[in-house]
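HOLO CASE FILE
Compound: guanosine-5'-triphosphate
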Amino acid sequence: MEAELMKPEIEELLRFCPRLPTLSGVALRIVKMAREPEIDIDQLAALISKDPALTVKIIRAANSPLLGRAQRTRNLQQAVMLLGLNSTITLSLSFSLTNSLKRNESQRQGLEHFWRRCLLSALACRELGRQCKAGALEELFLAGLLHEIGVLVLASVFPERYPALLDASSNHEGLIAQEREHLATDHGEAGAWIMREWGLPDYIPLATAAIHNPQAMDTPESLHAFIACVGLSGYIADIYLETDTESATASAASANECGPALDRAVLSTVLLQVANSLPEIEELFEMSFMSCEQVNGITDEARELLVMRYLQLLQHASEADRKASELERTAVQLQEMARRDPLTGAYNRRYFDEMLSQRFEAATRHQQPLSLGFLDLDHFKMVNDRYGHQAGDVVLAGVAKAISSRLRGDDFLARYGGEEFVLLLPNTNLELAQRILERIRAHIETEEHTVAPEHMIRITLSAGAAAHMDGSRISNKLDDLIRAADRALYLAKRQGRNRVEVAE
Ligand SMILES: Nc1nc2c(ncn2[C@@H]2O[C@H](COP(=O)(O)OP(=O)(O)OP(=O)(O)O)[C@@H](O)[C@H]2O)c(=O)[nH]1
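Model generated. Tokens follow.
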């Protein structure tokens, strides 16, 4: 579950960097308290009260409809109770970390954008978590807020080189690639490292490392939704910050499709909720974003683009589905065609051979009788000679159709060759096979075939049958069964045709 370890020389650089972001004493003590198994409300309130700015914020947060509590209180102790211990700690951490880190003037230069992105990510993360029930909301807020903190770390450790890398990268993936190439680390790794140094709860560095380097991480299943929210939150923040709303929205939509995707309505709701929460967050975190009109304009545009993108996706998906089922249907049709004799529509010899060995094995295994019958048209040559080959074809097709109409679902008719058919009768003993063949023979005898305009003829057939797994009739070999049925047919022909004989 641990990320690939940071290179020791990089860790050393980070550890001994004098400009590294530091936490205030109160923030550090809150972090320490967060790790204790038993936390006392009074102790926590006492600690928060040491920082007057933090106290005001916690009271304000407790009264904030944004955080889902609409009760009024002016008292820190009550505020902590209203928020609950866990939320108070997490919110205090969010406030103190932002404050401590923002206070460092040398690092503030050019980092307004960074902090805006952090806060927007925090809001989006919290909202995503609310929509997909991915964990405690304040923890999501904190994780969203801090997941890019590694940028601050790298900016502090490499003050000369890092701004150029930031400039040279057009997006988040690009920045990570640049960092790995030039600094042998990335801001995900650096962020996770400093969070562990500060002693933040493990799930926060873990989520940070996992979203920046998913291949190197084996994260517990229970954190997957949490991590997905943190990962997506930065893309949602970019929708508000990037000048090209369209491409930022497309990136957010693609990032969403990579994880346990949320539906478009949920993403639209998240965008709206983030926009609604901005004024409150601006106040709580003392930061200005953009005008309400600007925010609403961006949100409307992004929501529209999201809807359009999803509609396109749905359209592509249903088109792909339609094509796939068409292909499947065609494949089935082609396969069926490849098994059939084109003239008679009966199965062909190749498929019959395949089926015969399968059925023979199954009959042997289940000890069930299997009968095989050969059916051969009588004096068929005369039909060809007298009425022509085409007329012969008509008769062959008519006979096949007539035989098929007399069969059950499991029976299997194939054209064995020329004017000879073969019939496979699973679960049928010889006596029954004889009766079936007799019925077919009698039916064919009465069938009329049109061989020329207004000229009908009748034809007869002879049949011979043999059985496998029928009392004492157990052929060990398939060839014996075929030979026995063939001999019976020969006998039927010799005995005068238009009759059925069975192998003894
Ligand atoms: N029209 C047509 N005739 C075929 C086809 N396949 C085989 N035949 C003909 O079937 C006839 C079979 O003749 P024979 O083997 O002498 O058998 P028969 O005339 O039926 O006589 P018995 O089987 O002894 O009753 C030949 O004339 C073949 O040309 C086909 O696909 N279409």
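CASE NOTES: The chain has 23 helices and seven strands. Strands lie at 370-377, 412-417, 420-426, 449-452, 455-457, 461-468, 500-502.
CLOSED: yes
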